[in-house]
Design brief:
- This is YdhG-like domain-containing protein.
- This protein is an alpha+beta fold.
- The protein is 38% helix and 22% strand.
- The chain has five helices and six strands, in the order H-H-E-E-E-E-H-E-E-H-H.
- The chain has a six-stranded antiparallel β-sheet with strand order 1-2-3-4-6-5.
- The radius of gyration is 14 Å and the shape is globular.
Length: 134
């Protein structure tokens, strides 16, 4: 983790930082588990961002403006969130065509979030398939 990204995680309140670090670990784990290559970790728009070659980037953040939620953001010019809505709309809270909304009080739906990240990291390979091949 680079210094700028570490500083961002260190800036989160004590009760939020473990949630964000867990989400980071999950995102990195998806790339490793599925042998998707090196993950580029950076700050984009002040938020931790993750990308693999051939994939669509994933960002995450928590903000004091909406303290009960943290977010996993996807490129709004893709069909990712529309696909998540079709497949996981019953289990996920989604914001427009850009984010999965996670409640700080609820357990992270890890298998679903992992699958969504996997789809993002494979987006360029799957983008031509109906529902991204799900």
């Amino acid at each position: 983790m680079g210094e700028r990204v570490k500083a961002k995680f260190d800036s989160y309140p004590a009760h939020i930082k473990p949630l964000m670090l867990n989400l980071r670990s999950l995102v990195l784990g998806v790339a490793e588990t599925h042998s998707l290559g090196t993950v580029e970790e950076a700050l984009k728009w002040g938020e931790p961002s993750y990308q693999v070659k051939g994939g669509s980037p994933v960002r995450m953040n928590w903000s004091a403006k909406d303290p009960e939620h943290y977010f996993l953001y996807f490129n709004c010019n893709t069909r990712l969130v529309d696909t998540f809505r079709e497949v996981y709309g019953h289990a996920l809270s989604l914001q427009g065509n850009r984010a999965i909304v996670l409640n700080v009080a609820d357990p992270l739906p890890e298998p679903i979030v992992c699958h969504c990240v996997e789809l993002a990291f494979n987006y360029k390979r799957l983008s031509h398939l109906p529902l991204l091949g799900v």
